[in-house]
Amino acid sequence: MSLFGLFRRREAPAVAAKERLRFVLQHERAGRDSPDYLPRLQKDILAAIAKYVAVDDDQVTVRMSQDGAGARLEVNIELPPAPLARRRA
Amino acid sequence: MAKIIVMTSGKGGVGKTTSSAAFAVGLAARGHRTAVIDFDVGLRNLDIVMGCERRVVYDLVNVLNGEAKLRQALIRDKRLENLSILAASQTRDKEALSLEGVGKVLDELREDHDYIVCDSPAGIEKGALAALYYADEAIVVTNPEVSSVRDSDRILGILSSKSRRAETGEEPVREQLLLTRYDPARVQRGEMLSVDDVMEILAIPLLGVIPESQAVLRASNLGQPVILDRESSPAQAYEDAVGRFLGETIEHRFVKAERRGFLARLVGRTA
Q1: Which of B5, B81, B233, B255 could form a disulfide with B137 if both were Cys (CB 3.0 to 4.6 A apart)?
Q2: B146:A17 CB<8 A
Q3: Residue A58 carries which DSSP code?
């Protein structure tokens, strides 16, 4: 037992469980307050922008945040550095 | 005014039905007029745990569809005269579970009951939402296990956004934690999340800790809610939890590993 104990002295499973829970819940709680339509809205915004500028999926983020006064919709678009509308030229 | 209690968890198999039966019996035994409703349409089990499966004639869906009166569908418990059971339907689809219909059934029950216990199905679909929508009180049944705690957290989020109280901006649903299948010896060995770990993560008050016990399976085999197996540790823990629910101050038991003597360990059985 004592010899085994020496080799087994890793982190207790309960500690790992708690760590994993903390991590996963931190992310899930952050996304919880956003409305169900957010992914679809993000897709539509992306489609609209893509008509004029070449952007990738991961260059547009749509986020809803709550503060005392109300909800705020934040749309963040990273545009490519090159001149606009090249694609269509 | 009758209180509506939802027994909920997100995850399946953590003890919602066992706890619903225990709470319903515990409340009725203390003289409160109590009804317990199975919301798990298609997979009913409360009737089995309560031991009244042979007496189900009409069910919740029959009442919602207007095929039976509520009085006809309520099954009077044979042990406690002020306890009745409303079974879930076994065959119909859950489309009948409209919030409006469920609201009417609950309103009718409110007239002559003190407590209405809603046994939620697992998941976050229609049945689970219908079970929690009208709740005044939520008992969140959780096992000391990662997936169960995660799902409980999700259900807490739903309670605070999708319940009637959340929608109307009334005082929020009172949420309390019921930690079930707890094994203090495994916690002591660092193999299981402790009460404190789970409370720290979920951040809601502790209603009770129900120890892991063979008595629970025995009770469901017999159709006798485990709270009636008075000598067993879960029965005592449920009694305490019901008392706390009603506002009594009762110290938590079964939270620390018992120090058992050599002989007890040889015999090796707990109630």
Answers
A1: B5
A2: yes
A3: G
